[in-house]
Structures are given as C-alpha cells and as structure tokens.
Amino acid sequence: MLDKRLAREAWTVKGYLGSTLILGGLVAVLSVLQARYLAVAVSRVSLRGLLVPVLAVVVLKAAAQGAGIVLAHEGAAAIKERLRKRLAAHLFELGPVFVQGERSGEILNTWVDGVEALEEYFARYLPQLVLAVLIPAIILFFVFPADWTSALILLITAPLIPLFMVLIGKLAEKKALVHWREMSRMSAHFLDILQGLSTLKMFGRSESQSRVIGRVSDNFRRTTLEVLRVAFLSALVLELLATLSTALVAVALGLRLLAGGISFTTALFLLLLAPELYQPLRALGTQFHASLSGVSAANRVFALLAVQVPEPGGFSAASAETRNTGDLSPFASSGARETGGSLSFEKVSYTYPGRSKPCLQGVSFSLERGERVALTGQSGVGKSTVLRLLMGFTEPDRGVITAGGLPLPAWSKEEWRRQVAYVPQHPHLFAASIYENIRLGRRDASRAELLEAAKKAGVEEFVSLLPDGYETQIGEKGTRLSGGQAQRLAIARAFLKDAPLLLLDEPFTGLDAANEERLYRSLESLSRGRTVLVVTHGENALAWVDRVLVLEEGLMRESAEKRVTERAEREAERESEEGERRTEEEEKRPERVATRAVEAGRERENDTEAANGHREGNGSGNGQRNGNRKRHRTGGSGGETEMGHILWLFRQLAPYKGRVFLALLLGTLTIASHIGLMTTSAYLISRAAEHPPILDLMVAIVGVRFFGLLRAVSRYFERYVSHDVTFRILSNIRVAFYRALEPLAPAGVSSFASGDLFGRIGADIEALQYFFLRVFSPPVVAFIILIGSSLFLVRFNPLYGLVFALFYLAGGIGIPWLIKTVGRRTQREMPKARAGLYLGLLDSVQGMADILAFGLIAERLRDLADRSRKLGRLQRREALLEGLAAALTGLTMNLGMWLVLILAVRDVIDGRLAGVFLAAMPLAVSSSFEALLPMPLVFPNLEQSLGATQRLRELIEPRFGVCVTPVPAAKGESGHRTHPRESGQAPAALLSIRNLSFRYSPGGPWVLRGLDLDLERGERVALTGASGAGKSTLVNILLRFRDYETGSVRLQGEEIGRVVPDEVRRRFSVVAQNAYLFNATLRENLLLAKVEATEDELIGAARSAKLHEFIMSLPDGYDTLVGEGGFRLSGGQRQRLALARALLKDAPILILDEATAGLDPETEDDVISDLLALCRDRTVLFVTHHRSVLSHMDRILTLRGGRLSEAPGLLPAATGVL
Q1: Domain range for residue 406?
Q2: Which of 519, 535, 567 is the last residue of a domain?
Q3: Which of 202, 907, 964, 1004 has the highest CB neighbour number within 10 Å of its CB?
Q4: What is the C-alpha separation between 144 and 141, in angstroms, rounded?
Q5: Pair 1021, 945 in one domain
Q6: Within a domain: residue 171?
C-alpha cells in the first residue's frame, strides 16, 4: 500500500530510486531479448549467430539486477538516517518531561526498529510497486505485435492481481496496527523488567515474570501471525492468479498451435514471457508484508514527529522583539540590567498533566544577584518542579519567570542554560569513564581545571584508590559507584561548568559527614559572586544560605528564622577555622606523608565499591578467571565455538521437528510445482506443434493446471507454517533467556548497559528468526531439488544432469561461500552496531535533563548520527553483497541453462533426444534455480545468527561472586559452612555473621574482611560508614545477589550459602537506595510485595509511609500510573512508595538502605516512628548517614576498613548527617 508521507520521503532520494526503476526496466527489456533468443534457438534447433548476443544479454541482465538492489538500499539507508536525525532532534526539543512521561522501550522501538522497518518498504516494496506497473507494460509492448490474443489474456488477468491486493490490504492494515502496538508494548515491558529485575528479585516476583514474558511473547506471536496470514493470503491470491494465468496462456497457445493458428517460435516466446510479466506482480505480493510493517512503523514515527513542542507560557509575540541574543548575562557582576532582582517568579502556576490539583499556585519570589537561597518544604510539594521550570524543561501554565529583566522565554534556551549549573535530584551518569562524566560540565576545560573541580567535590578521595584513576569506567547510571560517590561526581560536573547561577536539588543526599562538610566548604568558595538556589531538607544546609523559602500547598513564603547577618558571621568563623586548619596541616604534613606510605597498601585493600565495580567491568571480575576461559569455549570465533552455537540453535528446533518437516515438505513442493509447471507447459506447446490428436494433450493440459494450483497453495502453507515455527521458537528463546538471566541479576549483568540488554533480548533474539527461515530451510530444500532435478535430467542424458549439478552447486555453494568470506565481518558487527543504537538513544533519553543542562544536545545528536551511520555503512555493505549475490546467481543460472540447451540441441541434431523435449530442458534448469535464490544470503544470515547467539550465551554465563544456586555440601560436610561460634547453649541470633570476607574479583581488593555481626529478633541497628565503605555490598550479600568467599552467614540458624536464594530473600523486606518503580499503577507497584494483599492492607502500608493522603488527592487514586521509573512522583513520594511496599511484605528482617533520603525532616521523623511501631517484632537494619535516625536505634555500627565497629552508646539526637 502507498503511504503519502513515505512517498514524500522517497522523493528526497529520487535519484537512487529513479535509477533503480531504470535498471528494473532494463532488466525487463533484456528478459524479452533473452526469451526471443531462446525461442529462436529451440525452433531452429541451432544457436548459430546467437551465442555472443546471448552472452551479452546474460551479463548485462545480471549486472542490472545487482546494481538495482544496491541502489535501492542506498536510497533506503539515506532516508533512515535522515528520519533518525529528525526524531532525535525532535525528542530533545520536546525535552525530558515528555520523554520521561513515555515508555523508553517504546521510544527505542520506534527510533531503532520502527525506522529499520522502513528499509524493506523503501528498498523493496516501493520500487517493486512501480516495477509491477512498468515491467508488464514493457512486456506487453513486445507481446502485442507478436500476438494480440495472448496479449489480451495477459492484459485482462494482470490487473486482477493488484485489485485483489488492495482489497486484502484494507483488512491487513488494521491488523498491522495492532501488531505494531503489541510489539511496542512488548519492547517497553521487556525494558521495564530488565531495569527493575533487582526489585522483582527482592520481592520474589522475578521467576513468575517468565510466565508473563511467555504470555506477552505468545500474544506477539499470535498478532504477528494474524498479520502474516493476511499478507500471505494476498501473496496466495497473486500467486494463484499468476500461475493459473500462465497455465491459461500455455493451454491457449497449445490449442492454437494444434489448430495451426500460431507459429511455434512465437508460441514459445510468449510462453517464456508470461512468467516474466507476472513475476513483478508476484514479487509485489511477497513484499506486501513489508508494506504493512512499513506503514505501521511510519504511523508511530510520524506520530512522534507530530507531537507539538509546547509554546512558552506567559510569553507574548510582542515580547519576541526583545529576545535576548545572548550578549547579556542576568547574573553577571556588572553590565546587567538593574531589575531589582536577577531572577524572579511572578504568580507562577503549574499543574502536571492528568492531575486536577495544581502543583504550584501563584508562586512569587525573587533571587538577588549573588544570593544563596534554600528552598524547603515537604516532599512532593513542587520544589523540583521549580527547578525544572527554571531550566526550561517545562513551561508554566500561568505567570512569568523573568531573568535579567526579560521573560525567560525571551532567552534562547541554549544561551540561558549556559548561565546555569544544574544538579538534579537523581543525576544521570553515563556509561563512560569518570573523567568523561566530569568533563561533560565543560568540554573546553583543561585537565587541571577538571581535577580541581573533582577535588572540591570530594571525587579525588575515592578516585585516587582506583587502579585506572579517572579513566575508570563507571557503568550505566554509575552502577559501579556508591550513591555518595555518584552524587559527588555529579557535583564535580557542576563545579567544572562554573556558571553564574547554581541550581542544586538535594545535593547532599547519600553523603557522609566528612564529604558533606567538604562539599559545604567547596560550595562556600564556589558560590562567592554567584546566585545559588538549593532544594534541601537538611538543617545543616540551611545554616549555609542567606535566606530560606518554604513551599507549602503550592504557595511560597519566606522563613523568618534566617538572616543574612548570620552568613557574614559564619564566613568569618569558617575563614578563621580554615586558617587554623591550614596551619595544622602544614605542621603535620611530614608526619602524614610518612604515615601515608605505611598505610597505602591497607587503603588499597579497603578499596571503594567503585574500584570493585571497575575491576568487575574490566575483566577482573565477571571475570578473567572464568570469563576468559568460558569465552574461549563459547564466545570466540573458532570452528569449535561456531559448532557449539549451531548445535544450540538446532536444539531450539527439536521440539517442533514435526512442524519443521512439514515446512520443508511444503517448500520443496513449491519449487517442484514451479518446475513441473514450466516443463509441462514447454512440453505442451512443443507437442501441440506436431498437431497430434487433442486427447494426447489432455494429460499435459491437466498437469499445467494442477502444478499452477499446487504451487500457489503449497507456497501459502509453507510460508505460514515456517513462520509459525519460527515465532514459536523465538517465544521459547525469550522465556529461556530470561530464566537464564534472572538468577545472575543484578551482579552478573551490572557490566551490561540496559540498552545493550534490551538489544540482546530484542534485536538479537529477533535475528534468530532467520536461522530457520534463511539458514536451515533453504539449503535443505535446495538439496532436495538438486537431487530431483538431476535425476530428471539424467534420464535424458547424464551429461545434462552433470552440467546442471555443477552450475547448481556453484550457485548454491560457491557463491554463498564467496559472500560469506567477503561479508563475515559485516555480519558479525551488525548486532553490535544495532545494540549501539539502543544504548546511545537510551542513554540520551534517560539522561536528557543532564544533556540539556550542560548544553550537549549537538554533541549527543552527532553521537546518535554516528551510531546510525555506522549501522548504515554495515547495511550498505550487506546490500552490496546481496546485489553481488543476485548478479552472480542470475549469471550462473542463465549460463547453466544455455549450456544445457547447447548440449540438448546437439543431441536433437544427432537424434539422441526427441525434439519435443528440447524446450523443456532449459526451462527445467532455470526453474530449478529458484531454489537457489535465498542461498547467497545463507552464510551472511548464519553469521548474524551466530553473532546473536554468542551475545546471548555470553550474557548468561556464570560469573565470579554471583550467586545462582546453593552449593551442595561435600561428602562428610554438615551441609553448612563452619560457624566459629558453635556452642549451642545460647539461643542463635536471627542473623549471625562471622569472619565474612568479600571481594569483587579474584586477587582484587577486599571490600569486607573478617566482618562479624549479630542481629537479634526485634533489634533495631543503624549501619553507618563513609560513602563507598561497602554498606550496600553487605546488603547485596545478605540478599544473595553476591556470593561470599569465606566466612559464615546464618539466617535463622541456616547458612544462607546452602539455601535457595529466593528462599533467603523471602525473609528480608528491603528499601533499596535507588528503589525502582515500574511503569504501572501505584496499586500494582505496591502489590509486588504481596500479591494477595487486601485493600485495607494496601491503605495501611500507604498510611504508615505518609502516602495515603497524597494518593487519595489524585483523580485515579491507587490506580494512577506512576510513569517510567516513577517519574510522575517527586523524589520523596517515590521513596515513600518504596517504604510502603517494603512494609507490606511480612518478612522478619527489614533492611532500609538510605530509605528516608529525600524526605523532609518532619515527614522523615513521622515515617520512622510509624515504621518502627509497626515493626516491633521485626529486626531492622537501617543503613544511613542521617543522625536523626540514630535516636530510634538500639545499636549503631560503623563500617570501616571492611570491618564493623560499635559505638559505645547512643549518640545524642542531632540533626544533619553522620
């Protein structure tokens, strides 16, 4: 079907597509000439004077066919690259509020797979649509002068084919849209599961997701087959009409020959042209599915492009005349317009889409130049929204934001953001080195400037311990850093930017006391002469600013407790303290240097989690110990490895061997019936030319009709059955892949980015569909046809069979082997390039706020364009190979056909072959070669399948330190590791740890070393320590996400190393430091903890987390969608939802890893009090930096140097961080 939007895109590459059509017309003319030469040679029983022109026609035809394929794909590649550029640029224009409100999986699916689906539309369907009109017109131009009767038959029957295709297309269009929606939904679901797999495992829901994935995959299979059924029905109609029309022409010519109404030469010429006329129409039917997929993909692509970029609120066209050109900074120390305030909100209101209650309602305030202001208020009141409005990520509904005397929209967004350094509540760290992540702050910064910014933010402290220093790869979203380390890195990025306006959203979250104090001092220095707005709940932070603004119920008020004079006093005091500290440091420096030399080795042993993550991601863990060994066995490129992958693929076919056999049988019947149709038709007109009794022709007449009908029907069922088998296999592989991946998460997949994982479970698994359709089935069918056609030809002359077999093997083995040799690297790189597209866009979508804040749009667009071009280059090479293969296969077929004809002519002259069979010999050869058409792409598709298989299998290999299944006790062992304290006299602690040691890789630094811990039933214990000390690592060991090398961990008297991991996790309820929320409703996120929970239980948990009132204020209440990653909730609301979920799970031990971060002090105190009241009978382990938590605890433990030490008594209830 023709889509006007896609036609307009095609017009932009009219040179490529026009050349393709010209070459297609040339192929048609050359086909006519070849048919004429063949008819003349058979009728004369001589090739005298024909060999040179025949050879020229054969070579030119092959070259034109190959060149046409290459040019069509060139045009398609150009369109795809341009569409991806437009989509990426439009997404950045829409901004983070839009993309975070969408499913990342659906955006990825549109940008990668949706655009990719247009390849077939532009490279195959669209040229074929035009050629389906052009080629029949050219052939009819030659047929009408030869025989107008046959021309009328062709002219009448040919238009029926597109007519039926259009009628069927109406039905298929709706099904294709459903199919595309199902594919987008499946992609989004897979990405959501992959990113939230740790959360699913914590709540014991990860294994059940295999059934969900199976159900989603099966739904996708069914919708795909429904679309294919219609597409194949279209192809069936086209095939049926084409073959029956060819049979009709053959029968009509035979009867007219019998009556003497037409010459044999003309009849044979027309018979040879009939299939050529219908061939482009049949090919159009074959490409019909490409049109459905293309139009469906285009609907989503153009729908995304059609989303309007929101117009700035409160900005009139008149004020556009005063648009700032970027020459004036509203925060410059001089030269700025005097406006009474550099920045102001004037009655600004904002309501989030889908909510009835405004988030901000008539908010007004101003910031003076050089002023430091704190913005506080309960979590969820809209503090982060204020910063988003200032960054231009969204526009106010009403009111005006002014800067430098101008409305904010009067500034170009790029210039405005150059004036601002922004640290969001959840900064995005990219999958790159520490150096590159900091350098995002200012690309032109020197290394010295970058190191100074890192030092001020406290990054230097942990980077100095890393083997690769600033070149350490931190993984996606900084997964190899602790929360505090990631926060410091994001702040270093803002320091490096050195902008006049500094916006900080909870910058002290996750920092220990030492690092928070260091950050205060750095901010004190950095903020001199700059304007600062910091969103915070910490009371220590309030002592650092000039004014405090409080946001309540959408309105702003100023706190009366803060005065500027305090700042001057504090600064004088700080300067005095700093002077004394510098003096002391100078005095102690020699001693410290000597001490440092002694303790250097110890410090490196007690490395940070970032170092561990680095080692893990760079080969030491995951690891060199078994990673290299296993990759040599399963991930290399040797023959043994390839055979292992091939055997694995064959095992996927085994459960469906009956369907596989049926598909192969139907494929063989399809080719065999085509051979029967052409040879029987040739025999029919040859025999009719001898004017026998009509009864002698009846068998041939019936045979022609039979083979025509059989070909169409067998082709339909072969395509349907083979695709059904393929999609059943893919569904099984998805489930099997998830089941193999699930036990390894999160530790075993931490070195893989989500985009990479998404590409593997998406594109790589999809690539395996070609194994059966294009790798396994074609050679089997081709081999059967080789045997059958050779036996047929040998009956007439063994030499015919030998010549045919040689050319057939050259086309079936030689050409594919050549294509494989030339294109092996291309096919192996293709899955990686496609995964690079997923990774690049996912990083851009999920890190868009940081990209915009640091003015990196152009850089990211270039990166995405480079990734797209890389895939395009590989696909162009692939198209070149496809064109070469088509040219060589066509050349081989025609040369083989003409050589057999030469031999047959000689035999007819010598009397060894009856003349009635002469025409059948070359047609038997040429029609047999139809089985070889897919063969040149067998090896390239095999390489692609092997590459995808390798990427899948290497992902699910066991890794060092990753717990998968409990290790059985060796013979003579008691079934659990030896516990140093085995008295049995005192009742066992609920959780008892002895001499626990852990490192992320063999030979790597110890993170935990000789750690001891006892937790009694009902005890409340605080776990503190510097950022990166290993607190989260200990939690991961308890949850069996990591396995430990030495020591003992007993839970309720059982060694957890001998217990099924899921059973261990059932005894813990956890609020992780970065709790993941699924793109579902509030209710569904809560029910993860307890599927059978009643409404009262849900409400009770929400009340305890101080969330129920907020939920009830929403229009849809508990059925409100939270958005991807909980985007539609504030940071505090997300944290409270995670708390409610943990409370809902009835487990004996509650682990809270910085669970109250992001909550205001009042809410935090209320939540902790209610939480502990509800958990009287539970043991609570509270990982925290907050002093306010400690007054609620029975014991306070500090993790330092891999060991725990206990505070001698409770610290006084104080504010701030520990």
Answers
A1: 341-567
A2: 567
A3: 202
A4: 6
A5: no
A6: no
The secondary structure element, H or E, covering residue 1140 is helix 1131-1144
Q: Which helix (H) or strand (E) holds 860?
A: helix 857-910
Integer angstrom CA distances of residue 1204 from 470, 706, 781, 933, 1191:
29, 85, 69, 70, 19
Structure tokens at 647: 């055997």
Strands 1179-1183 and 1020-1024 come out as parallel
Give CA–CA dist 1141/1078, Å, rounded: 12
Task: Give the model confidence (pLDDT) of 1112-1130 as tens digits.
Answer: 888 888 988 887 777 778 7
Q: Distance between CA atoms of 353 and 310, rounded to whole angstroms?
A: 13
Dump pLDDT digits (tens) for 612-653. Answer: 443 333 333 333 333 333 333 333 333 447 788 888 888 888
959 Cβ contact list (under 8 Å, min separation 6): 621, 622, 623, 626, 627, 744, 747, 748
What average pLDDT does the structure give for the chain?
A: 79
Do residues 548 and 558 touch, judged by C-beta distance below 8 A?
yes
**Predicted confidence band at 1063 (pLDDT cuts at 50, 70, 90)?**
confident
Strand blocks (E) in 900-980: none
Residue 563 sits in the same domain as residue 659: no
Indicate the residue among 518, 550, 567 that finishes a domain: 567
649 shares a domain with 553: no
Specify whether the backbone of 380 is left (phi greater than 0), alpha (psi in -120 to 50) or beta. Answer: left
Query: Phi first, then psi: what are they for 1147, rounded to 5°?
Result: -125, 150
CB atoms within 10 A of CB 11: 9
Q: What is the dihedral of CA 188, 189, 190, 196, to 10 degrees?
A: 110
Same domain, 995 and 948: no
Question: Per the structure, how many domains does the chain have?
Answer: 3
Tokens linked to 398: 């009403």
- pLDDT at position 59: 93
Tens-place pLDDT, residues 241-266:
777 788 888 888 888 888 888 888 89
**Same domain, yes or no, for 547 and 684?**
no
DSSP H or E stretch at residue 374: strand 372-376
Tokens describing residue 1079: 């793109």
Please provide residue 1121's backbone torsions phi and psi, each rounded to the nearest 5 degrees. -75, 135
For 496-523, b/e burial (b = at least 16 CB within 10 A) is: bbebbbbbbbbbbbbbbeebbebbbbbb
Residue-wise DSSP of 244-261: HHHHHHHHHHHHHHHHT-
Identify the top-confidence range among 447-456, 585-594, 1162-1171: 447-456
CATH of the domain at 1152: 3.40.50.300
Phi and psi dihedrals of 653, rounded to 5? -80, -25
**Number of C-beta neighbours around residue 347 at 10 A:** 14
